[in-house]
From TrEMBL:
The keyword Signal applies. This is Lon proteolytic domain-containing protein. Residues 1-28 form the signal peptide. Residues 154-244 form the Lon proteolytic domain. Keywords: Signal. InterPro entries: Lon_proteolytic (IPR008269), Ribosomal_Su5_D2-typ_SF (IPR020568), Ribsml_uS5_D2-typ_fold_subgr (IPR014721). Pfam families: Lon_C.
Amino acid sequence: MLSRLTRPQALAVCAVPAVALLATAVFAPLPFSVAQPGLTADVLGENKGTQVITVSGAKTRETTGQLRMTTIEATSPDTRVSLPDVLGAWFGTDQAVMPRDSVYPTGDNLEEIERYNEEQMRASQEEATSAALGYLDLDGKGIEVDLKLADVGGPSAGLLFSLGIVDKLNGDDSGGDLTGGRIIAGTGTIDAEGRVGAVGGVPLKTQAARRDGATVFLVPEAECAEARAELPDGLRLIPVTTLQGTVDALVALEKGAGKVPSC
């Protein structure tokens, strides 16, 4: 025998699964990572007690200023990111929500991800060295470059590695430094031909750069709009597409002559 529920009773019964569904949605893991500004490191100096760039087979020069590569820190691949986490990061200015696959494209295994990031960093260092020595016409001259940067993976430091090598070997080509004594930060991949590629997390990297004293930020040209949208006060953007163009822009900035590109 079936009995008919009153309207309040029916609403109450319907509300039970709705509440359960909402609770599940709120606390269920979501396919996102929450990122924030990470460490920066001066490629012209030491990181954790170890020289970042060591050159053998050629005379190097003393440098002033800093060239700081930038990073982001993201929740680990096995961290449960729920709706409250996403909403908190979405409305915060010092965090960003990123698709988990864009941060960890190789899967869930932490060892596999670390190995992938190390391989990406190693390949980036080789490309950066080739780009810098090619720019300086020093290919095949018996010069060896050793790059060491602890606890950092991925390819996004490539541009800064190349600039650091150029500054240590050649500076601005007239006895000065590429930095002009400034703290210059940036990001961007680089290939052996000196082409600069886009990376992720640029707004967070600009925050890390400004936090650590940078006044100039080198950004892949394709990411100008993204960088400009949340640019910290006191940080100047210089868009770049090639190693040659980046060096030219820094020399123009240092000497106060010539056009310095802007976003």
